[in-house]
Amino acid sequence: MKTLIYNIKELIGILPKEVQRLEGEQMGGVSSIKNAYLIIKDGIIDAFGKMEELAPNGENISLSDEFEKKIDAEGRLVLPTFCDSHTHICYSGTRENEFVDKINGLSYEEIAKRGGGILNSADLLNKTSEDSLYEQTMERVKEIAAKGTGAVEIKSGYALTLEGELKMLRVIKRVKETAPLFVKSTFLGAHAVGRAFVGKQDEYVEHICKEMIPAVAAEHLADYIDVFCDKGFFTQKQTEEILSEGAKYGLVPKIHANELDVSGGVQVGVKYKALSVDHLERTTDAEIESLKGTITMATMLPGASFFLGMPYGRAKDYIKAGLGVALASDYNPGSSPSGDMRFVMALGCIKMKLTPEEAFNACTINAAYAMGVSNLYGSITEGKRGNVIITEKIPSLAHIAYYHHTPFISQIIR
Ligand code: NIG
Ligand code: FE
């Protein structure tokens, strides 16, 4: 099957094959071709270039019979679909009661301390059937797919029991097999201390290491392992125990760190060669220093800052220090009930002062890197998956972030 998209006003986000992530000043550049075409063959980007190269003698391309499908983009932009490298979209029900509690003055930590928050979601999820959980998750997957996400990472961590965590990961596996987008799964047993272990945190960590990780690995249910290394959740030492156990099973870390406090989680992530360290609402220069020269992608979640009224990550300082930054949605019922990557891009610009180019790169190639798929997604590159957004008739890339709530997608090609 060969698809041609022609008369593209601007084909945006072109990168050479060897570029897996962008760092420092590179983040400010987005290459594009004006008045372009794009050919997708059997789902893979086959060729692209200027219209005049496709029809050097002014041939009427709409009459060509070389392509099964021809899309006249009529002056619209084409860009790669977003990658969302950090989500918790496998959950049951919602938590608007806590939303109201927060409006009335309780903090995220206070709600968690009262046994609400993640534990509330866990109580409900443990009572939810696998089929219902699958349906609820798929509904969210379809929602984000329609909003332009082409690859998503989904975490477990809303059961906190052995059986429940396996149930979540089996659901995520089923989603992988049936979703209209690419999925990576992460085991997050250390999202909070399970009800049965409250007050016995070290025993819960041991349960994760000795029971959960081997069971998850035996069924090949996770690509990555995550720990919520933060104040009131898991300590640096406990995080290290979990990551070193995970490493025995080949589970690469992606860490929650520095959301509630400067937790030391970034340094632990770097030590264990994490693919990404995520949140980073609170960081000192030491965290920035610790990431230099590493394989770990700093990932910020402005949707959580927005929803919980927390500081935004210091993305600009990371970039100034020569580092790469990824942005992700953190879509979850407690701290970021939105998986709209366009809104994430807009927050990156409006609140974190990223240029539209930096925010775009953070939501595409760098987010792809942060979930281990930058060989397949995140840019317009020959050989990568032909997953692209054809926009409405908008003037520029900047307009996507600027006009942040007017629908901008006319069609998504997968
Ligand atoms: O990434 N910080 C920990 N986990 C989620 C929130 C989960 C929840 O409140 O349900 C987050 O923000
Ligand atoms: Fe999260």
Write the layout of secondary structure elements.
Layout: E1 2-14, E2 31-41, E3 44-50, H1 51-54, E4 69-72, E5 77-80, E6 82-87, H2 96-103, H3 108-113, H4 118-127, H5 130-146, E7 149-155, H6 162-178, E8 182-190, H7 201-218, E9 224-229, H8 236-248, E10 252-257, H9 265-271, E11 276-279, H10 285-291, E12 297-300, H11 302-308, H12 315-320, E13 325-327, H13 341-350, H14 356-363, H15 365-370, E14 388-391, H16 397-402, E15 409-413
Parallel strand pairs: 1-4, 1-5, 6-7, 7-8, 8-9, 9-10, 10-11, 11-12, 12-13
Antiparallel strand pairs: 1-2, 2-3, 5-14, 14-15
Residues 88, 117-118, 121, 228, 256, 259, 304, 330, 332-335 line the site of N-(iminomethyl)-L-glutamic acid.
Q: Main traits of this protein?
A:
about 425 residues, alpha/beta, Urease, subunit C, domain 1, TIM Barrel, 2 domains, eight-stranded parallel sheet, seven-stranded mixed sheet, 16 helices, 15 strands, about 35% helix, globular, binds N-(iminomethyl)-L-glutamic acid, binds fe (iii) ion
Can you describe what's shown?
The chain has 414 residues and is of the alpha/beta class. It has two domains: 2-80 and 379-413, Roll (Urease, subunit C, domain 1), CATH 2.30.40; 82-370, Metal-dependent hydrolases (TIM Barrel), CATH 3.20.20.140. The chain has 16 helices and 15 strands. An eight-stranded parallel β-sheet has the order 6-7-8-9-10-11-12-13. Strands 1, 2, 3, 4, 5, 14 and 15 form a seven-stranded mixed β-sheet that branches. Helix 6 (162-178) packs parallel to helix 7 (201-218). The two termini are 12 Å apart. The site of N-(iminomethyl)-L-glutamic acid has 13 residues, from helix 4.
